[in-house]
Specification:
Layout (H helix, E strand, L loop, with lengths): L10 H16 L3 H46 L1
Length: 76
């Protein structure tokens, strides 16, 4: 399903990640780090949920299309 290069971040994302890592390394406020960690976890879970729903919908559409093709073959 995925190719090995799919797991490599493009340069723009690598740069953004480097900037974020620098900001985290320089942050001295535990409260700010805690809040950002909570927001990050929430975003990750939302993206995981949306990806799961997108895959579920794609599989449902693929299966419906496949069943329709089979029904047409049977009717012929």
């Amino acid at each position: 399903m995925f190719k090995s290069e799919d797991f490599t971040l493009p340069l723009e994302k690598q740069l953004r990640l480097r900037v974020i890592n620098t900001e985290v390394d320089e942050c001295t406020s535990i409260e700010a780090l805690q809040e950002n960690l909570k927001q990050c976890a929430e975003s990750l879970m939302k993206y995981q949920h949306l990806l799961g729903k997108a895959i579920e919908n794609q599989i449902t559409n693929d299966m419906t299309s496949w069943i329709d093709k089979i029904d047409k073959k049977v009717d012929e």
